[in-house]
From TrEMBL:
Alphabetically ordered keywords of this record: Hydrolase
Name of the protein: Hydrolase
Span list, region Disordered: 233-255
UniProt cross-references to SUPFAM superfamilies, sorted A to Z: HAD-like (SSF56784)
Coiled-coil features, chain-numbered ranges: none
Domain of life: Bacteria
GO molecular function per UniProt: hydrolase activity
Length: 255
C-alpha cells in the first residue's frame, strides 16, 4: 500500500516558474529609451535577435555558444553578484551596440520589476497556499536581489523565506542549497515540494528527499495555469476562488 506525501511547504524557482522575463526586443527598447539612444525598428529587431542568440538576457534563451574567455564566469555567475554582471554584459558585448553604456543599461533593466511578467496563475496559487498555512519559499540561482521584483508585483507578501544562490555562494542542484531552504522553512525535506522549470537544477531537490514538480519554461501568455498543479500536489483541490488584489500600498520602485 502506498501513502501520499503530505507537503507542508513549497519552494518555488523564480525565473521561468513564478515570473518570466520580458522578450528581448522590449528589453532592448527599454534600454535604448533609458539611455536616450536612437535605433530604427529594423535595427532593434536585428540587434535583439543577436542579443538573444548570445544569451545576453538573463532569464531568456541560453547562449548558443559561450566564448572561451567567459566560460569560467558563466559557471560561477550565480554564486557571485559581480560574476553575474560580468558574465551577462560580456555576452552582450559580442553584439555591437551604438553606445558603450548600453551594455550596463541592459543589465540594469533586467533587474527592474517592469522587466518581469508574472505567470497568470502565480498570485492565485501563492495566495491559496499561504491561506492554507503552507510555508512558502523562493529558491533561485541568481546573482541579484529579486525581492523588490516580487514586492512590486504583489507576490512578496505570500513568501516566508528567500534562499538566493549568490547570498550563500552555492547553487542548485547542490543539495546544500535545498537543505538551507528546508531549514529556513523549518521543515524536513520530505515535507517540502520544489517547483521549477529546470529539471536538472530544480529536480536536484529529490536527492535530498524533497518532492519535485516541473513546469515548462514558456512565455507567460502560453502558460496560463501550470502552477495550479501545485494545488493538486498539496491536496488543495477545491474551488480556486479569487486571488487577492495586488497590494497597492507597496512601491513599484526600488528602495
Amino acid at each position: 500500500m502506498t501513502t501520499m506525501t503530505t507537503f507542508k511547504g513549497v519552494l518555488f524557482d523564480f525565473s521561468g516558474t513564478l515570473l518570466r522575463i520580458e522578450p528581448a526586443e522590449s528589453w532592448l527598447r527599454a534600454a535604448l529609451d533609458a539611455s536616450g539612444t536612437a535605433m530604427d525598428d529594423a535595427g532593434i529587431a536585428r540587434t535583439a535577435a543577436a542579443l538573444e542568440r548570445a544569451g545576453a538576457l538573463p532569464g531568456g534563451a541560453s547562449p548558443v555558444e559561450i566564448p572561451a574567455d567567459l566560460a569560467e564566469l558563466w559557471e560561477s555567475r550565480d554564486r557571485e553578484a559581480a560574476h553575474h554582471r560580468a558574465a551577462y554584459t560580456g555576452l552582450a558585448r559580442q553584439v555591437p551596440l551604438p553606445a558603450p553604456e548600453l551594455y550596463d543599461v541592459l543589465y540594469d533593466r533586467h533587474k527592474t520589476p517592469e522587466a518581469w511578467i508574472p505567470y497568470p496563475d502565480a498570485a492565485e496559487v501563492l495566495a491559496r497556499l499561504h491561506g492554507a498555512g503552507l510555508r512558502i519559499g523562493v529558491l533561485s540561482n541568481i546573482g541579484w536581489d529579486l525581492r523588490p521584483v516580487l514586492r512590486a508585483h504583489g507576490l512578496d507578501r505570500f513568501v516566508d523565506h528567500y534562499v538566493l544562490s549568490y547570498e550563500h555562494r552555492v547553487q542548485k542542484p547542490d543539495p546544500k542549497i535545498f537543505a538551507l531552504a528546508c531549514e529556513a522553512l523549518g521543515l524536513p525535506p520530505d515535507e517540502v515540494l520544489m517547483v521549477g522549470d529546470d529539471r536538472r537544477a530544480d529536480g536536484g531537490a529529490t536527492a535530498l528527499g524533497c518532492g519535485y514538480l516541473p513546469v515548462d519554461h514558456l512565455p507567460a501568455e502560453e502558460r496560463p495555469d501550470a502552477l495550479r498543479t501545485v494545488l493538486e500536489r498539496v491536496g488543495l483541490t477545491g474551488p480556486a476562488g479569487r486571488a487577492p488584489d495586488p497590494d497597492t500600498s507597496r512601491s513599484t520602485s526600488y528602495s
